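User: quick one
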Amino acid sequence: DGGITQSPKYLFRKEGQNVTLSCEQNLNHDAMYWYRQDPGQGLRLIYYSQIVNDFQKGDIAEGYSVSREKKESFPLTVTSAQKNPTAFYLCASSIGGIYGYTFGSGTRLTVV
Amino acid sequence: QKEVEQDPGPLSVPEGAIVSLNCTYSNSAFQYFMWYRQYSRKGPELLMYTYSSGNKEDGRFTAQVDKSSKYISLFIRDSQPSDSATYLCATSNNAGNMLTFGGGTRLMVKP
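Assistant: Done. Structure below.
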């Protein structure tokens, strides 16, 4: 079955650590997105990529980095520069925004 | 002002009630309108999709778009406890590729 897989489901980060969240899709979608969701808040765009080897900053890119070396994969690194990283992170993909996004099941990141 | 506004709720209704969820938007270039349902600790899933103005029905769900007033609605008939979730509206312009989301409305359907 085609879909989008995020791992891990839960992740704990110590202060000063970088962590990488995985996002893999087998839908052959060109575009991929990373969103952050805080309790009671909507989705905030971190980064997006419309083709391999190209990506753009979203509204809250500071403290995050991404790569897009393969069409299927769009990993997100939360760096130590991100001062408040505890949140629910969602990855999505699409063949074009007019057809909507397919979301992964999310990764919950907690700073310990 | 956000481009897409949505009352965060929570909206609490008894089982069997008709639910009305609403969004307003400011950009007249938006042509495509979607509703996503998100259960707690899960990713959003596409529920309904409409283009331009008008109604679209799918089972107990009806999506309605009024472009003249920039108003989007989702109606749920005979609501069930399993409908308890956060509902996100989303819009896209004709150029495609990027969705703009509302903040989501949390719905609770009580047995």
